């Protein structure tokens, strides 16, 4: 009987809306918050990796973000998605760590790897996913794009969080988006007739 009740409670939590789970968490239900972590942990880690964190750092910061979210859960009002709220907490933690380590400057940086690296024989016609495309951006461009489009910060919020000029952040975002568009829009492969005609 106790196992059946526990299973029913687990099933109810798994189908509950994030707002309901947050309300239960405010009341002290750690299992409800555990369900929020289960649902959104992968997304938070992915956001941090896209911002430039290595996998172990992303795991550590995601854990710290969820601990902070649990402590601040009463502040979550449901005006946006829980995933966005906890993502902003994680982004701010990453920025704090980034500032401490002072790993980058606001000057122009070369991408971490060659723009054509990793495409193999398929060349520019290869299908590229977002994570691979983000690796082609400089560290600063990746951070600015991830803050504005991954964590949902406005340009002004990102500039304030990074303690950088607004125009500089906007420039890095624009340059990063232009590079992403180029990386994600693969040229269609020519048909055999086109190859015969041109070749």
Provide the descriptors you would attach to this structure in a database record.
199 residues; mainly alpha; Rna Polymerase Sigma Factor, Chain: A; Arc Repressor Mutant, subunit A; 2 domains; 0% strand; elongated
Q: TL;DR of this structure?
A:
Helices cover 67% and strands 0% of the residues. The protein is mainly α.
Largest sheet: none
Helix proportion: 55-70%
- Quickly name the level 1 CATH class of the largest domain: Mainly Alpha
Global mean pLDDT: 80
| Superfamily (CATH H level) name of the largest domain | RNA polymerase sigma factor, region 2, helix turn helix motif
Distance between the termini: 75 Å
SS-based class: mainly alpha
CATH architecture of the largest domain: Orthogonal Bundle
Give a topology summary.
Blueprint lengths: L1 H14 L2 H9 L3 H22 L3 H17 L10 H20 L28 H5 L4 H12 L4 H8 L3 H19 L7 H7 L1
